[in-house]
Amino acid sequence: MLKPQKNFLITGFLNGYIAWIIRRHFKKVHFNTPDFDSNQSILLIANHCSWWDGFILYHINRLYFKKNFHTMVLEETMQKVGIFKYLGGFSVAKNSKQVLEALSFAAGLLNDVNNMVVIFPQGKLHSNFVDEVGFEKGVFRIAAQAKPDFQYVFAASFTENFEHKKPSVFCSLTVFHSNDFTTLEELRKAYQQHYMAAKTTQTNITI
Fold it and tell me: Is the separation of the CB atoms in 156 and 171 below 8 Å?
């Protein structure tokens, strides 16, 4: 398993670089600012529709939540894109014993109030406007192993151009306490409701 590496010089450079490439490629990143407890860690659950997803959430975290960012990345991707380890990436190799190690590592991160762990429960890239967001079991295993004083943040992101040459990102965020869900199915249904509400709002936009 590949774990995050701390290098303040490299991370500082990447922070500026990510902000720059987002400004270069996107008209704007829109997101709401829900109330959250700064004294609790965050398990952020998001839909996965593009290469940009992790960078967009990293950017939102730096602007608003201001936590130490971590995200689970496929091992082959971590090996190809070395910078991920300086952005809080840690690897998982599917269909191997390493999965349990990665889930345990993620749960341990949530025991530090300064941390955010980002999980894309679909496991693969899907269309920006699918009707249902699938959940693999790992996300709830992380929650079950962590201490019960973290908070969930649900993120549903959509990318559209409308009248502009550059696309904009629209990210809807909602906060829940860890005790709000006792099963994977409860968590999945709650995220699905959040996602569909955000999708309905998005598809009702007219210019």
Answer: yes
